[in-house]
Amino acid sequence: MIIEQDIRGERVILSQYYERDVSKEYLSWLSDKEINRFLEVRFTDYSEVLAKEYVNSCIKSPNTYFLKIVSKKDDFIGTCTINYNENHRTAEIGLMLGDKAFHNKGIGTEVIGLLTRFCCSNLSSRKVTAGLYVPNVGSLRAFLKNGFSIESRLGSQVLLEGKPVDVYRLSYFC
């Protein structure tokens, strides 16, 4: 799905991600074990072709937005997604901050807030959800700062570095 208008925040802009945006930098983030430690993308070896196919599938999808996160100085710093279910008026959000220079600076918190407001206001969502690995305390803090609540904890749901870890399911009611 294509977003019609950029989502602007104090420090970042969320805008449509196109096939032409797939870069060596982006591909390096997808394979960086530190960046994707808590992300499911770590299980896929993304080539340029596969990444472009993914981007195009999101654009063609009637319910998936794939956006780039750009700093106000026009630095490409990450990506985010919205998967919208029109039947239930729910949206699932996620993000990857790829540029490590922008980690631990509140950018994730801002992006979550922007995505949540967009889902509630522009998509008429009634509920926004997200999932995260319990050891990912930075992401948990960012979601909680935006008014999300822990809805459930799934015990030993995923393997992280070969060991079972729990997953939180988070929710925000618009």
Could you characterize the architecture of this molecule?
The chain is an alpha+beta fold. It has a domain at 7-126: Gcn5-related N-acetyltransferase (GNAT) (Aminopeptidase, 3-Layer(aba) Sandwich). Helices cover 26% and strands 36% of the residues. It contains four helices and eight strands. It has helices spanning 24-31, 48-60, 107-121, 137-145; strands at residues 7-8, 12-16, 64-71, 76-85, 90-97, 127-133, 149-160, 163-173.
**Widest β-sheet, arrangement of strands:** 1-2-3-4-5-6-8-7
Architecture of the domain at 7-126 in CATH? 3-Layer(aba) Sandwich
Largest sheet: 8 strands, mixed
| CATH hierarchy class name of the domain at 7-126 | Alpha Beta
* Order of H and E elements: EEHHEEEHEHEE
- The number of helical elements comes to 4
Brief overview:
With 174 residues, the protein is of the alpha+beta class. It is 26% helix and 36% strand. It has a domain of 120 residues: Gcn5-related N-acetyltransferase (GNAT) (Aminopeptidase, 3-Layer(aba) Sandwich).
Which SSEs are present, and which pair or pack?
Elements: E1 7-8, E2 12-16, H1 24-31, H2 48-60, E3 64-71, E4 76-85, E5 90-97, H3 107-121, E6 127-133, H4 137-145, E7 149-160, E8 163-173
Parallel strand pairs: 5-6
Antiparallel strand pairs: 1-2, 2-3, 3-4, 4-5, 6-8, 7-8
Descriptive tags:
4 helices, globular, 26% helix, 174 residues, 36% strand, Aminopeptidase, 8 strands, alpha+beta
